[in-house]
Design a protein that fits this description.
50 residues, mainly alpha, 2 helices, 0% strand, rod-shaped
């Protein structure tokens, strides 16, 4: 038989794994639109035609 402590530990590891992925998904959705500064296209293109 498996110790009950091991099952509880596996449950916590699984929950933390899901929480990590949820936070990563939310960060990838929020960061580009609300946190990051927009790219200056004139500087990025190297000219004045952008």
């Amino acid at each position: 038989m498996v110790c009950e402590c091991a099952l509880v530990l596996l449950g916590w590891v699984f929950l933390l794994y899901l929480l990590y992925h949820l936070i990563t998904i939310l960060y990838n959705l929020v960061y580009p639109f609300f946190i990051a500064t927009p790219i200056n296209l004139h500087k990025a293109a190297g000219g004045k035609w952008a």
